[in-house]
Amino acid sequence: MTFQQPKIDTSPKVSDEIRKTTCYMCACRCGINVHMKTDENGEKKVAYIEGNRDHPVNKGVLCAKGSAGIMQVNAPSRLRAPLKRVGPRGSGEFEEISWDEALDIAVGLLKPIREKNPEKLAFFTGRDQSQSFTGFWAQNFGTPNFAAHGGFCSVNMAAGGIYTMGGAFWEFGQPDWDHTKLFMLFGVAEDHDSNPIKMGIGKIKARGARVIGVNPIRSGYNAVADDWVGITPGTDGLFILSIVHVLMKAGKIDLDYLSRYTNAPVLVDASGGPTKGLFLRDSDGKPLVKDRNTGELTAFDKPGVRPDLSATHEVDGVTHRPVFHLMAERYLSDEYAPEAVAERCGLTAKRIRNIAAEIARVAFDEAFELDQEWTDFRGETHSKMIGRPVSFHSMRGVSAHANGFQTCRALHVLQILLGTVEVPGGFRFKPPYPKPPEAHPKPHGKVTCNAPLDGPHLGFVHGPEDLMLKDDGSPIRIDKAFTWENPMSSHGLMHMVISNAHAGNPYKIDTLFMYMANMSWNSSMNTRGVIDMLTDKDENGDYKIPNIIYSDAYSSEMVAYADLILPDTTYLERHDCISLLDRPICEADGAADAIRWPVIEPDREVRGFQSTLVHLANRLGMPGFVNEDGSAKYEDYADYIVNHERKPGIGPLAGFRGTDGSKVGRGEVNPNQIDQYIENGGFFVSHIPEEASYYKPWNMAYQNWAVDMGLFDAPTPYLFQLYSEPMRKFQLAAEGHGERQPPEHLRERVQETMDPMPIWYETDQHGNDGFTINALTQRPMAMYHSWGTQNAWLRQLHGRNPLYVPTKLMRENGLEDGDWAKVTSPHGEITVPVMEMAALNDNTVWTWNAIGKRKGAWALEEDAPEATKGFLLNHLIHELLPAKGDGLRWANSDPITGQAAWFDLKVKMEKAAAPADLAESQPALPPIKSPVGTGPKDLEWKVGK
């Protein structure tokens, strides 16, 4: 008898239905297939989650976080109903109330504020990814006090990129994965854009391309890099400008690209007085260049002009020189030579020169051409697209320093000098970028009782005249954004809201309204101090911050410190809009947006926070949310997504517009729009024409496509800004020119830090004598902020976080794995377990962020490793710098944007005995009471058969 091959079902039925939506386990926003099974009660429940192969972001790839989303939806820590505080703040004593009562309480707090003092509301949101909507709500309420988390995350990167080239990394752009041959990362944490970067690195390494990782810590992406540069934290800008020095000295820069597409040939006023250092302009205000063909002074965008990088212009004995001359004068200086900077960077001069040589070799010796005709904004048609296959990527690592803005600008300038931005093989913008700063709104702050604010809260200033200052020079905003303390703070300063409100500086507020921002724990500097601020009372026994409303999906540490809790849904139970008006999912080859929708219905009395805002707006009668007769324009957030128009034909979603869903970008409201998104897998893509693929800021095919899509109202070509005129305007004010000038104590700082060309300056904090070790935190790839460490699957990957210590410091302090160390900063002290790590900068210690939890939070047991062995470096960091003897306390922030300088922390370390109390990490704060209690010992279930 012949052998019979066993019959195996290779395609078993794994679910009863697949519902496609968008992941929310990190900021990648990948497409997911949610497999549903029918349970014994006939209800469909989530069985498991996989990647959607048709999705433009992840193409089916899904990481551990995404797969573990099922555990978020079933987390015991989920809030169950609105809560009203009945005990002291911080006690965790609440009673459940109805939604009607909760909204009545909120309206009772908000209505008199709106009628009498709109600025008394401070509305700040965390990583909610719906800032165009929350900003619209705050604007219609009328408060000037709105921002999201960017001020303590990555505003330096975003603002540095937009002020320099009209966009930045991550959500703004990406490497040309199909053509790049050398990819260089600076300070990229593992949770940022993880699936696309992993896919991209895999693609380029398969082709033999090289990866260089610049990071004090060799983990994640740096672990697979061909070359790891273990730089000293905070010196990235010095390293980059040294590379610029070497490239300029060797002539390895793209002069043709610089002359055509940047302000390198623009002439700078060399005369004295209030115009010194500004651009020479024509009667229409356009920057002037010398035309190489005619030798004439002309506007930069005149058809047929060929700007001259070397020509000067003399008037009345004064020689006006182009930006390129000023750059050469600065960066060819010996102060930027590798030999002058290497020791501070923790590198050798030879290493810097070798990296610069490799960049130059690939950019110029391996340049290539694509046979693609295109026409530029001066009307010149080009038969080829020139490829320079070097690309860069960077994120929070270089951004979260007090010199982060200038460092980010330096990195963008390096790309531009090489001619690798918006060319084949280089860095490519994602729609709706590129946009020059002039295309964005300026910040607004005019308050009128019972009326909307006069414009958007956040934006881009172009000079001192745009600062948010009252007539007496005091700040308009509670966080002091857009003031002389941080003039270009495009994302606001969320990390300063609580301390400023507590101090009543610049004024007292009535209500702090926050969403998804764990400010009493891992999202604040000075954690213990912030807890005290939230609970502190005045001489009358009243809380110094009178009212706190908070919304979250889970019982986080922040919940205990609120007076009213408006419980949010989990991400599979809600509508969300990943919009072109906000933070879309575009790729360089196409505009894309996406939705989330309730693939399951909540089994608790919870509502999506954005819908709660709609309900509050309706009750408050806020313009933008109600009709003239006072009736509601929108029932909930889904209704808003479909029916709201920011301008005629432009709404939150760009796809399936028009009454029948046939229009793209611009079009009438489509009542079935969300259904059509669901049918399409939860996303929409409109691909860019091939002739518009590169040179987007100058390519008229792209500019016209962008207008058709509704990204611009008219073509908006512009020059990259190697020299930033807005920054020079602030310097001029500090030099004594203009009606608005900085206060005396800030004059010198503004003049020194706001240089129009990228500089590097030391960030060593005053009061750091004896504190010589750099201390950093980093996000693990398996976590997304606080959420991941309650997740039953992800906790198995990261249940605790030791302090990683380099071999040199381990030996110097007599430490071995599992020993304990006391780590001290000028602000605080922790005692924590240590582990040796060889692949680490010799003078840097680090740990994973957001692993450590406070006892009682997140429905974890009090002896959970996250609450006993886990810890935060936040206890060592203060929102203010140590006193330096001038009577002032300076913010621990970048002086230009106000971004929190998390990574400037300096510490000292010594071996310590294990803490007597069960060897728990110190400080061990008392447990907080959770309104949801503690989860079961075993968390298990099975859906269907």
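Next protein, fold it too.
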Amino acid sequence: MTEARPDAVASASLWERDAELAAVTEAIDALRDDSSPSAAGSLLMFTGEAGIGKTALLTETRRIAEKRGCTVWSARSGETVTSVPFNVVRQVLQPALVSLMPEEAREYLGDWYDIAGPALGITEPGERQADPQNVCEGLVVAVSRLAEREWPLVLLIDDVHWADQETLRWLAAFVERLVDLRVLVVVALRPGDVADESAPHLDTITAAALCPAGSLRALTPEATAGLTRATVGTHADDPFCREVWAVTGGNPYETVELLAKVQDSQLEPVEASAADLRALNRSARGNGLVARLESLGIEATRFAWAAAILGTGITVDLVARLATLRHEEAVRCAELLSVARILTEPAPANRHADDGQLEFLHPLIASAVYRSIPDGLRTAMHGIAAQVVTDCGLGAAAASRHLLEVHPDDDEELVEQMRQAAREHLAVGAPEAARRCLERALLEPPLPEVHPHVLYELGCATLLTSPATTIDYLQAALAMPGLEGEVRVDAVYRLSQALLHNNQLEEAIRTVDTEAARLEPGSSRLRLQAVHHMWEGVHAAGEHSLTRSRELTELARTCTGRDNSERALLILRGFDAMTHGENAEEVVELCDRALVNGRLAPGLGWTDTEWGIELLLMLGSSYVYTDRLDRAESLFTEALGVYDSAGWGGGHLALAHAYVGLGHRRRGRLRSAETSLRESLRLAERVGRGLPLYWSATCGLVDTLLARGHAEEAWSIAEQYGFAPPYPSTIVLPDTRCVRGRLLLAVGRTEEGINELEAAEKASAGHGHNTVLAPWAGALARALAAADPRRAAELAATARRQAELFGTDTAIGEALRVAAALETGQRAASLYAQAVSYLEASPCAYEHAAALVEYGIATRSAGELKRGLTLAQACGADGLAARARDVLGATVPTGSR
């Protein structure tokens, strides 16, 4: 048991906490050990019921850390401020931020300043909606960089179960990086009060703890007796001490409060007085605490109520305004409440705002005071608090937390305030807070002409984070009268986009078609027609492929690229022609006509919402598979830079990395491709499995690993990330069935691989195909070469005809490689020589290396093998390089060396 000390009352909650304090001390000492350069950060978690001593442990952790020369940043969550985005992470970082000049903060945070700065309140947000995932990443970087400046650093977060969702998202991401940071994070959690939406983040945080979190135990009777005697006198007898334990259940907080009441009432600590302890305990908690508060007078009660309503940022001046007290009265009330152990001034180390800030002595007291306010009065005080906050110039977002608690009352002004608050929340990357504001605006309710616009804004607010939620709100908005013109067209487009990303492609197409049918000819109708063909163009099934191609051809025939609707149709026609293997020169001509002086037109940029990312990915893909890799890579690299600088770190950034990886893969830079695709997959995991972007990252990574010769690793990735049927309804580049079929062949599952490639063949029946994007014919021909040479030859001939129709050096060279693989002797050598010639002229280095190695093997030419080996090594094609080395190491005719 922890020994009694002179400060026993102040440290009551530390009795019988030797194991926890030892863990704290060990973690702090490990943090400070600069003799170990590989030392990593760590996380400690204290859990338990209310009053069990979690806050006291964090306070003692601060004392120990500061005594050992550590910097300590801390924050406390609150039951009444869970809806305030970034509240807790701002508290954590305030000590560092207030010590930095703006130019210093910008220097430390670098490119992340404009992304994380608005969430931290140190800079104004940009004009675009911030991506919450990138804001979270920016906060992780911000804390990481500031931690390096303040090492050794300890972060303390009390009552993390009440933290806002944005802070929890940051903390969950941050603790996963502790292996690379020398930071000690200590959190206190009350498990029974965890909200459903907080549980996943808290599970991640808990999993990062040094050891499984165990709940703090109540004090034993022996510890309670020792604490009692240390507080009220050594003459306290055993029956009295046992009753103290029985009344409080060994809860440290209740024990301290009860003993304080014993001292205040001058109760003699002997058996004869034990019967009075229960009544005293009731006065120290719940209704008894309320009675004690009321005994201080109506002004002090109003002051405490106002402080509880504010919850955070409590100053005498602000409370005085809310409680309608004169400043002198407010100061007197603050003093009374401090003496009564209800409010206190934070210790200097804990202070996070201006001088004069107050806080409740304990979170339990804050909750009890808040709940003691009569319901009607509490609601009214929140309304007044919203006005006070607004009058102080803190903005609609700050006032919105109070307006969320006000009863609906057909208030047009409140609806507009909540819409403005939502815009402010979106600008800093807090879409959940925006959603709460707009949903509250719906309850008011809005005027009929405003109602569909609020629903539309709700759909836009959730577009980046929850396609399913977006669908519900936009469908409701479109079902109501009042949404007309370009806003309605935009709502239809966004709805179809959400349906697409929710894997409801056919519904997305129907939605666009229905709206287009009700419009008169003009730019709006043309836009929706283009969107229709855009979604049809990404449809993997392709049942109506030929009909769509004819319709697109007709629509694009008269398009000159004079506006973005025409440019979109040109891109769509070019993509359609590319996937079907039509003449590559015509594909490029169509795509070039969609540009303005070789660049994207205004309104068709990567962050422009009128058309979205899909159209531009089609444009870049068309260039990729027509051997115009310079143009494709320029587009995809631009996307990456734009999304990084704009703070779009979720699905958009994941797709940008995937298509940058595609460019690297086609160029033959396989190591760079793998890096980009792994980053894409990491980001896609955060957005959610099963979405089209997830398939793009996984398929591209498997394809790249196969090219590198890492078949087992490719198989492991496929198994881990579910790269297997059923496939998504949207087209994936490269073709999923072809990649899966080649993977199965590579790991020796030949029959399954053949079946997969035959399924790819069936899917393209009735129309042509791009033999580079979907190389099923060549792969199937190789697989059937021994068992069914006749069919293999037919497939090779089909691939060659289709490649020659398409006309790129890569397509023809690859078709010749397949044909050569089915031949022997001089015929094989001649075909390989032709393949090398074509692929040498193409930008695809890996395919060129493969042709050189195969040519060298067929002709037993050391020169060709060495050329192939050098190029394979440069590409990172380990399997191909190993094959070349093996053959070179075997017997080769002297004349060919």
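About the second fold: The two ends are 82 Å apart (CA to CA).
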